[in-house]
Specification:
Order of helices and strands: EEEHHEEHEHEH
Number of strands: 7
Shape: globular
Enzyme class: hydrolase
Oligomer: single chain
InterPro entries: Macro_dom (IPR002589), Macro_dom-like (IPR043472)
Keywords: Hydrolase
Helix content: 25-40%
Number of domains: 1
Strand content: 15-25%
Strand order of the largest sheet: 1-2-7-6-3-5-4
CATH superfamily: Leucine Aminopeptidase, subunit E, domain 1
GO molecular function, one term: hydrolase activity
Pfam families: Macro (PF01661)
Bound molecules: adenosine-5'-diphosphate
């Protein structure tokens, strides 16, 4: 088992909509308009109440900036909250700026989870699907940002739910670089 300080860090291959955790993170778009991939899966499994809340946030604040995140309820999912994080589209900004924006999504998501009293959180691999961020570059950023942010916003468990065996292998290799160094 890998820990970052007092936090258990779990990697698994699976469907994030099936996880029982306090907060499930969505890879959303800045309009919070739903879509394919993990976003579509979360709205399908969670039911229409999540989109109603997204609609309200869009009406009030115009959506969510890239590199940030917003929180809604979790509808029928086995979670208390969905945190909609908006990752960068690879190629729209410089690689360094994209790294910073991706890190911002993970850090903001952990902060929001903490503010909502969550002790466990599940992340998908944000931006590495349709948004095209190379997963070999994204995985170490995700892990390093989480490890750093946990100093301020402690969780019992952070779970990374990877959809494919290949993605899981990339995260495993990135995590092994951190193992034992907590
Ligand atoms: P983005 O637009 O941020 O790239 P995507 O949803 O296209 O988001 O992809 C992000 C990652 O989520 C991809 O690795 C994709 O394979 C994965 N994914 C898709 N559906 C699920 C799901 N139900 N559970 C976990 N991961 C998923």
């Amino acid at each position: 088992m890998v820990t970052f300080g007092a936090t258990k860090v779990t990697l698994l291959q699976g469907d994030i909509t099936k996880q029982s955790v306090d907060a499930i993170v969505n890879a959303a778009n800045s309009a919070l308009a739903g879509g394919g991939g993990v976003d579509g899966a979360i709205h399908r499994a969670g039911g229409p109440s999540i989109m109603r809340e997204c609609d309200r946030i869009r009406a009030e604040r115009g959506g969510c900036a890239t590199g940030s995140a917003v929180t809604t309820g979790a509808g029928e999912l086995d979670a208390k909250h969905v945190i909609h994080g908006v990752g960068p589209i690879w190629g729209q900004a410089s690689p360094e700026e994209s790294d910073r924006l991706l890190a911002g999504v993970y850090a903001t998501s952990l902060r929001l989870a903490h503010e909502h009293g969550c002790k466990s959180i599940a992340f998908p691999s944000i931006s590495t699907g349709v948004y095209g961020f190379p997963i070999e570059r994204a995985a170490p950023i995700a892990l390093a940002t989480v490890r750093q942010t946990l100093d301020d916003f402690l969780m019992d468990e952070v779970r990374f739910v990877l959809f494919s065996a290949g993605d899981l292998a990339v995260y495993e290799s990135a995590l092994s670089a951190f193992a034992g160094s907590s």
